[in-house]
Amino acid sequence: MPIDTLDIHGSDQIGIHLASVGNVLFHPRELPTPTLEILERVVGLELAPISIGGSNLIGALLAGNTNGMAVADIATESDIDALTAYGDVVVMEGGVNTAGNLLLVNEQGCVASPSIPKDGLEILSEVLGVDIISTKIGGQDVVGSLGVVNSQGVLLHPDVAPEEVLRIEEILGVPPMVGTVSFGSPYVGAGICASNNGALAGSETTGPELNRIEDALGLI
């Protein structure tokens, strides 16, 4: 099944807990076996248990693609060592460090929060191996929480502005759609984890929302 619902540690905000990065799904340690089986079956990526600075909010703290990844500066040396086994790593510093909340990344491009300094964008572009634009989504900075993307499509917060849509479509190279998750939440990046193979959404997500997610991410 290319799409399913799931909670992580009792939370339906699974996009905050899970990070789909290239061919790897980073997830909190000590998840129950049934949950791991769902992750493996639906997302179809190599599973990599990790914590970042002792936190289980992996999706909020990590973002990337097959070329590399960005991680929050709360990551310890051992966390960074573990991540470098999967690609180049850049540590986001200066108080702008919730990488997963501030970046929307696929293999074609990256949308970054305007809160990230220009010199930081240059480093990110080099590590991720893609061009980057800086823009808000629906007038908000936390672009990683406001969108979910793979190499087939992108689902965005319903309040995204037309000019934002055009810029996002151009940089990510995929057709955009708008939608919600978890019975009406517009924070689709926080509520969904997706790969090119499948997607998981929080357990409160409705059937019409799942259909929209499936369509937007090219999973049909």
Descriptive notes:
It is built from ten helices and 15 strands. It has a three-stranded mixed sheet with strand order 1-15-14, with helices on both faces. It has a three-stranded mixed sheet with strand order 2-3-4. The protein has a three-stranded mixed sheet with strand order 5-6-7, sandwiched between helices. The mean pLDDT is 96. It is an alpha/beta fold and 220 residues long.
What would a concise description of this structure say?
The protein is α/β, with parallel strands linked by helices.
Mean pLDDT: 96
Q: Tell me the helix content.
A: 25-40%
**CA-to-CA gap between the ends?**
10 Å
Q: Sum up the overall morphology in one term.
A: globular
**Class by helix and strand content?**
alpha/beta
- Counted beta strands: 15
Strand content: 15-25%
Low-confidence stretches: none
Order of helices and strands: EHEEHEHEEHEHEEHEHEEHEHEEH
| Physical arrangement of strands within the biggest beta sheet | 1-15-14
Taking all Cα atoms into account, the compactness measure Rg is: 15 Å
Number of helical segments with 4 or more residues = 10
Quaternary state reads single chain
Largest sheet: 3 strands, mixed
